[in-house]
Design a protein that fits this description.
Layout lengths: L7 E7 L6 H12 L9 H14 L2 E7 L7 H17 L4 E3 L1
Parallel strand pairs: 1-2, 2-3
């Protein structure tokens, strides 16, 4: 019988000091130890995040404390991407 892997658990806080999508990607990937933080764009980040949620025994809580440092378009894309991922993996990704 296989022993279940322990659950990895992370809390990531995004505040106004995050002003670019690359800083945002790094904040999440560095905290969650995803390994990569140099994504060329939103699609690559989304694919990597979804793959991580699908293949790892992981729980990620993202606290969106202050997104005002991001441009309006980056803020919209980020929120849509994260909300979609949270709907797809409701037991693994929690947004505040």
């Amino acid at each position: 019988m296989d022993t279940p892997q322990p659950v990895e658990s992370y809390v990531v806080t995004i505040e106004s000091s995050v002003t670019t999508k690359h800083e945002l990607f790094s904040r999440i990937t560095d905290k969650v130890h995803l390994g990569l933080s140099r994504f060329s764009g939103w699609d690559a980040f989304e694919e990597f995040l979804l793959s991580t949620l699908e293949t790892r025994n992981i729980v990620i809580q993202v606290v969106n404390d202050d997104l005002s440092g991001l441009s309006e378009s980056d803020r919209r894309l980020y929120l849509r991407l994260m909300e979609d991922a949270a709907r797809e993996f409701p037991q693994k990704l929690f947004l505040e």
